[in-house]
C-alpha cells in the first residue's frame, strides 16, 4: 500500500507538472497570438465587451428579477452581484455610454483583468492593479483611454485595415475611392485630402497646377524626344500617370516616393489605368525590365527612394518637386544631375511663410527679409526664384524663368537650366535687394554696385522719407529682379492646352501671355509679330527650335560653342521686352470720396497716356505698368468722379498738384456721357460749384 501510494503521489505530481507546462504553453501562445493578431488572418471569437446592442450585453448577464447577478465586464471585487434593475443601470451608464462605435459594433469599456497595469510596490509585497480598457475590434489590442481608442481605429481606417478577423463580423466594403481627372483614374484612401493623416495625399484643388506642369512638359517633349521625366513625390501617382497616358512614347516616366504604402498605391493605380510597372528599389536594378516592358510604350518606372537620393544617382530632362511645404531641401539635388536645357518645376505650398504671415520662417527657409505688401504674391514668386537661382549657381548652372504663378494654395515656378559658369554668373547678378516704402507702397530695386550709400532710401521716386517723420522704407530681399515669364514658351503652352483640351489652364495662360507682353486682352492675339522663327498650327503661332542647334543635342555630350551662342541669342530675342516688375492695386491707391473708373477703362486711359499696361494673375484688381506711382495716381485722380450723399458732398475736394479742376470736371462728364464735350467758358462757375457743393449734377452736365 505504501508503494502504491507513492506511485499515486508520483503520478499526481507528474500530472500537475504537465498541466502547469500546458497552461504555460497556452499562456505563451495567447501572448504570441496577441502580438501577432495584426498579421494573423485566421478567424477568432470576439471579446465579450464588443456587442451590437445593449440587449446583447444584458443577455451575457442573464438578468433575472429574483436573483442577484454579477456584471460580465467587471470583477467581483469591483462590482458585487446585484438585482436586475441595478445591473441594467450599471451596464447602460458605465459600459454602454462610454463605448466606441465602429461599423455597427460597440466596443464597451472593460474592467476585467485583461490588461495589467504597472505593479505597486508596498514594502516587500507587490500589488498588481487592473485598469479599465477597450478591446480593438480589428487587432484585439487593449487601449485604456477612449480618445486613444478612437485614434487607434482611425489609423486602421487610414491604412485600409478595416477587415476585422472576428467570425461574427461580416467583411466590410472596400475603403478605397476611385477619382477621375483628365481621363486618368486614381485610387485613394478615404482621407486623401489630409496630408498629415494619409500616406497617399491627393488634393483636387491642385488640378490647375497639374495642368500647367503637363503643358510645360508637353512643350519640352516637342523640342526633343524621348525625354526622361521624374515625379519626385508621387503620392497617388496621378501626375506621372497623366504624363504617360497622354504623351506616351515621347516621355519615359519615373514616379518616386519614399513611403511604402504610397508605392503600393502607385502600382495599383498603374494597373487601374492598364499600364505596366517597372519596380526598382535599388539603383543596380535599373536595367531590369518587367516582362515586355521594352515593347510596351506605356511603362512607368516606380521607385522607392528618398527624393535627394534618386536625383543624385540619375539624370533627368524634366524634374518636378511637390513636397509638403517648402522645397528648398531638394533644390541642390535637383540641379546636380539635370541635363542641359532641361526643365525643373517646383510647387511650394508653404504659403504662410511666403505670403509674409510667418516672416521668421521665410527668413529661416529662404534667407529673405519680407513684410506684407500689396504685391505680396509676386514677392513670394521672386523669393522662390531667388532660392532656385542660388541652388543652380552652386552647381555652375544658370536658369531662365519660364513661368512663375502664385495663387491661393501654391506657388509654381518653372525654370530652364543653362549649364556653364557664365549663365550661372548672369543669373546670380539678377538677385538684388528691394527698397519698399511702407507709406505710399512705392518700390524700386537697389542699384547694382559695391559702393555703400549714405541714404539708400533716396533711390525711391517718392519723397516720403523726407516729408514723413521716422523711417518710412524697409529693405526686402534678396529677391529675383529679372523677368518672371517667357512669352514664347507661354504661347506654346497655350497651344498644348488647346490641343489636349485643358479648359481650366487656358484662361490663366492667356492672362499670363498678356502679362508677359504687358498688353490688355483687347490687344491680345495668338499672333506675335516680334518673333521671327515661327510655325503656325491650329491658328496659333509657336516657336520652332533651330534645327541646326537641336541636331547637336546628344545626351552625355557637351554642345559646341556655336550651339550655345545660338541658344543664348534665341533666349535674348524672347526676353527683349521684359515686363515691368510688380504691380499696383487700384483699390489701395483710390481717393477717398471719389468713384474710381472701371478697371478696363482705367487700363485704356493709362495706355493712351503712353504707358505699357496689363492686368496680372497675382491680383484681380492689380495693374502692371511701367508708369511711376505718381503718374498712376494722377491718371486715377483725373478719371475719378466725386461721390455725393444726398445731393451734397461729404467734404472739400482735395486735388493733387498738377491736376486742374477743368480736367476733373471733364472726367466726370466723360464718365456719364462719353460723347459730351468739355466747355472751358464757365470754368470759374464750375470751380465755385464744386467747392460750394451746390448743384454738382448741373455743373458736370454744363
TrEMBL record:
Compositionally biased residues, Basic and acidic residues: 19-32
Coiled coil (UniProt feature): none
Gene Ontology biological-process entries: tRNA N2-guanine methylation
Location in or out of the cell: Nucleus, Nucleolus
Domain of life where this protein originates: Eukaryota
Domain C2H2-type residues, every copy: 136-156
Region feature (Disordered): 1-38
Any GO CC annotation of this UniProt entry: nucleolus
Keywords tagged on the record: Isopeptide bond, Metal-binding, Methyltransferase, Nucleus, Phosphoprotein, RNA-binding, S-adenosyl-L-methionine, Transferase, tRNA processing, tRNA-binding, Ubl conjugation, Zinc, Zinc-finger
SUPFAM superfamilies hit by this protein: S-adenosyl-L-methionine-dependent methyltransferases
Catalyzed reaction equations: guanosine(27) in tRNA(Tyr) + 2 S-adenosyl-L-methionine = N(2)-dimethylguanosine(27) in tRNA(Tyr) + 2 S-adenosyl-L-homocysteine + 2 H(+)
Pfam families per the UniProt record, alphabetical: TRM (PF02005)
Keyword Phosphoprotein (UniProt): yes
InterPro entries in alphabetical order: SAM-dependent_MTases_sf (IPR029063), Trm1 (IPR002905), tRNA_met_Trm1_C (IPR042296), Znf_C2H2_type (IPR013087)
A molecular function (GO) term: tRNA (guanine) methyltransferase activity
UniProt xrefs under PANTHER family: N 2 ,N 2 -DIMETHYLGUANOSINE TRNA METHYLTRANSFERASE, TRMT1-LIKE PROTEIN
Family affiliation: Belongs to the class I-like SAM-binding methyltransferase superfamily. Trm1 family.
Protein name: tRNA (guanine(27)-N(2))-dimethyltransferase
Gene: Trmt1l
Amino acid at each position: 500500500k505504501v508503494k502504491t501510494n507513492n506511485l499515486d503521489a508520483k503520478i499526481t505530481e507528474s500530472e500537475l507538472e504537465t498541466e502547469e507546462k500546458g497552461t504555460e504553453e497556452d499562456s505563451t501562445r495567447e501572448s504570441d497570438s496577441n502580438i501577432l493578431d495584426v498579421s494573423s488572418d485566421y478567424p477568432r471569437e470576439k471579446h465579450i465587451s464588443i456587442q451590437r446592442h445593449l440587449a446583447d450585453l444584458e443577455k451575457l448577464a442573464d438578468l433575472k428579477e429574483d436573483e442577484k447577478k454579477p456584471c460580465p465586464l467587471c470583477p467581483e471585487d469591483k462590482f458585487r452581484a446585484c438585482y436586475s434593475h441595478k445591473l441594467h443601470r450599471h451596464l447602460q451608464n458605465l459600459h454602454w455610454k462610454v463605448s466606441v462605435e465602429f461599423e455597427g459594433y460597440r466596443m464597451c469599456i472593460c474592467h476585467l483583468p485583461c490588461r495589467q497595469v504597472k505593479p505597486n510596490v508596498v514594502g516587500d509585497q507587490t500589488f498588481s492593479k487592473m485598469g479599465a480598457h477597450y478591446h480593438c475590434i480589428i487587432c484585439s489590442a487593449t487601449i485604456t483611454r477612449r480618445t486613444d481608442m478612437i485614434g487607434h481605429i482611425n489609423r486602421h481606417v487610414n491604412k485600409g485595415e478595416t477587415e476585422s478577423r472576428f467570425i461574427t463580423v461580416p467583411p466590410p466594403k472596400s475603403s478605397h475611392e476611385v477619382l477621375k481627372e483628365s481621363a486618368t483614374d486614381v485610387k485613394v484612401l478615404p482621407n486623401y485630402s489630409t496630408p498629415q493623416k494619409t500616406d497617399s495625399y491627393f488634393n483636387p484643388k491642385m488640378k490647375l497646377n497639374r495642368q500647367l506642369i503637363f503643358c510645360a512638359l508637353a512643350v519640352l517633349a516637342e523640342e526633343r524626344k524621348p525625354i526622361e521625366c521624374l515625379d519626385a513625390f508621387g503620392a497617388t501617382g496621378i501626375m506621372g500617370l497623366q504624363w504617360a497616358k497622354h504623351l506616351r512614347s515621347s516621355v519615359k516616366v519615373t514616379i518616386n516616393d519614399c513611403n511604402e504604402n504610397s508605392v503600393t498605391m502607385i502600382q495599383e493605380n498603374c494597373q487601374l489605368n492598364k499600364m505596366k510597372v517597372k519596380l526598382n528599389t535599388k539603383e543596380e536594378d535599373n536595367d531590369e525590365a518587367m516582362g515586355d516592358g521594352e515593347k510596351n510604350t506605356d511603362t512607368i518606372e516606380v521607385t522607392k527612394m528618398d527624393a535627394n537620393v534618386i536625383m543624385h544617382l540619375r539624370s533627368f530632362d524634366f524634374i518636378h518637386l511637390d513636397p509638403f511645404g517648402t522645397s528648398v531641401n531638394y533644390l541642390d539635388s535637383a540641379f546636380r544631375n539635370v541635363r542641359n536645357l532641361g526643365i525643373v518645376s517646383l510647387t511650394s505650398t508653404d504659403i504662410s511663410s511666403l505670403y509674409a504671415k510667418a516672416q521668421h520662417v521665410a527668413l529661416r527657409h529662404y534667407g529673405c527679409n519680407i513684410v506684407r505688401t500689396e504685391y505680396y504674391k509676386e514677392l513670394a514668386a521672386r523669393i522662390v526664384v531667388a532660392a532656385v537661382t542660388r541652388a543652380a549657381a552652386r552647381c555652375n548652372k544658370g536658369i531662365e524663368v519660364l513661368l512663375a504663378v502664385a495663387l491661393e494654395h501654391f506657388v509654381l515656378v518653372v525654370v530652364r537650366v543653362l549649364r556653364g559658369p557664365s549663365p550661372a554668373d548672369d543669373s546670380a547678378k539678377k538677385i538684388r535687394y528691394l527698397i519698399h516704402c511702407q507709406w505710399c507702397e512705392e518700390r524700386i530695386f537697389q542699384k547694382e554696385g559695391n559702393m555703400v550709400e549714405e541714404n539708400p532710401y533716396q533711390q525711391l521716386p517718392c519723397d516720403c522719407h523726407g516729408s514723413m517723420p521716422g523711417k518710412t522704407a524697409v529693405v526686402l530681399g534678396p529677391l529675383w529682379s529679372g523677368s518672371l515669364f517667357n512669352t514664347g514658351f507661354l504661347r506654346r503652352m497655350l497651344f498644348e492646352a488647346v490641343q489636349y483640351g485643358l479648359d481650366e489652364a487656358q484662361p490663366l495662360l492667356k492672362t499670363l501671355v498678356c502679362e508677359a507682353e504687358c498688353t490688355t486682352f483687347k490687344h491680345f492675339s495668338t499672333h506675335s509679330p516680334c518673333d521671327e522663327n515661327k510655325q503656325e498650327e491650329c491658328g496659333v503661332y509657336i516657336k520652332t527650335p533651330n534645327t541646326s542647334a537641336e541636331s547637336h543635342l546628344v545626351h552625355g555630350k557637351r554642345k559646341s560653342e556655336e550651339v550655345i551662342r545660338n541658344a543664348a541669342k534665341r533666349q535674348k530675342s524672347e526676353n527683349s521686352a521684359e515686363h515691368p516688375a510688380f504691380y499696383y492695386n487700384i483699390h489701395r491707391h483710390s481717393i477717398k470720396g471719389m468713384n474710381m473708373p472701371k478697371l478696363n477703362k482705367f487700363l485704356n486711359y493709362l495706355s493712351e497716356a503712353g504707358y505699357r499696361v496689363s492686368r496680372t494673375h497675382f491680383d484681380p484688381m492689380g495693374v502692371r505698368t511701367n508708369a511711376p506711382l505718381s503718374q498712376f495716381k494722377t491718371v486715377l485722380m483725373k478719371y475719378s468722379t466725386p461721390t455725393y450723399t444726398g445731393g451734397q458732398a461729404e467734404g472739400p475736394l482735395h486735388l493733387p498738384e498738377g491736376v486742374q479742376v477743368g480736367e476733373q470736371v471733364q472726367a466726370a462728364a466723360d464718365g456719364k456721357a462719353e460723347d459730351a464735350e468739355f466747355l472751358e467758358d464757365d470754368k470759374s462757375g464750375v470751380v465755385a460749384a464744386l467747392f460750394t457743393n451746390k448743384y454738382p449734377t448741373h455743373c458736370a452736365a454744363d
